[in-house]
Amino acid sequence: MTNPTTPIVEFKNVTYSTDGLHILKEITGSFPEGKITTLVGPSGAGKTTLFRLCNGLISPDTGDILIKGKPIQTYEPIRLRRNVGLALQSATMIKGTVLENLALPLALQGMQIEQQDAEELLDDVGLDKSFLHRHAKDLSGGQRQKLSIARTLVNKPKILLLDEITSSLDRVSQHDIEELISKINEKYGTTIVWITHNLEQARSIGHYTWVMMGGEVIESGESSMLDNPQDERVLEFIKGELA
Ligand SMILES: Nc1ncnc2c1ncn2[C@@H]1O[C@H](COP(=O)(O)OP(=O)(O)OP(=O)(O)O)[C@@H](O)[C@H]1O
Ligand SMILES: [Mg+2]
To answer: What is d(CA 126, CA 122) in angstroms, rounded to the nearest whole number?
Structure first.
């Protein structure tokens, strides 16, 4: 059993700026291993920027990021991206079949995907194996999002970062994806960090929640904290979202 409080990603006084703008200010905190942490906050709070730091797309100006206790810069970029998967709202696909899209992470490493593994991955995300030879462009939004998640699972990441993956989906598809992510978390023990604008989702799916504003984490804790936040700004934000 994993100790529920073992951090898998740690931020220590992390700052990031670009074009003279202070985008992240002294971020300190951690994402617990094997848990689901949800990230909420107004547009421009710095949530996506935090993800880009976690998979090495950008580096902090100051401070340290540790992954499994080791400084992020000590990981080879390929190894880091294998361990830290990222799924985006856009669920961008290459031209071609579902199989070709699933195979992409391995193809980029000069490897091929086994038919059986591809079928198993589709099964994991609730898509029938008959989808394998369909064109990715013909999938519905929800199906494309499932394929995008399956594709990030190819590398069996320890950490899965999800950036607003259900924002453009209807309620039924949203619910499907929520169940799927909880299942992946339970089945593989994958640490999930999920950025969402849906506070109900953040509360129900998350074990832990961070509220970010203006490049800072202004409140964090168990997701039930959203029912009774201590910080006045969080209260205002929640009221605004629910209005
Ligand atoms: N490459 C960049 N160059 C200049 N400014 C940037 C860059 N990337 C992000 N920013 C700015 O940093 C701030 C935080 O952006 P970020 O995308 O992290 O916010 P967010 O919390 O994900 O917002 P949203 O909820 O709208 O997705 C914004 O003000 C944004 O305009
Ligand atoms: Mg964002």
So the answer is: 6
Sequence-distant (≥ 6) Cβ neighbours of residue 181 within 8 angstroms:
36, 149, 160, 162, 192, 194, 205
pLDDT in tens, 136-172: 999 999 999 999 999 999 999 999 999 999 998 889 8
Residue 74 DSSP label: G
Q: Give tens-digit pLDDT for 49-59.
A: 999 999 999 99
Model-wide pTM > 0.70? yes
The closest residue, in CA terms, to atom 18 on ligand 1 is: 46
Q: Please name each of the domains of the chain with its CATH number.
A: 7-90+159-242 (3.40.50.300)
Paired residues of 84 in beta bridges? 159
> DSSP 3-state assignment of 185?
helix
Q: Can you say whether residue 201 is alpha, beta or left, with left for phi > 0 and alpha for psi between -120 and 50 degrees?
A: alpha
Cβ-contact 27, 169 below 8 angstroms = no
pLDDT tens profile 10-46: 999 999 999 999 999 999 999 999 999 999 999 999 9
In 33-169, the DSSP E strands lie at 36-40, 62-67, 70-71, 84-88, 159-163
Q: Report the separation in Å between the CA atom of 125 and the middle of ligand 2, taken as the mean of its atom positions.
A: 24
| 44 pocket-lining for ligand 1 (C-beta < 6 Å) | yes
Nearest to 59 by CA among 45, 67, 49, 68: 49
Give the Å distance between the CA of 86 and the centre of ligand 2. Answer: 13
| d(C-alpha 91, C-alpha 42), whole Å | 22
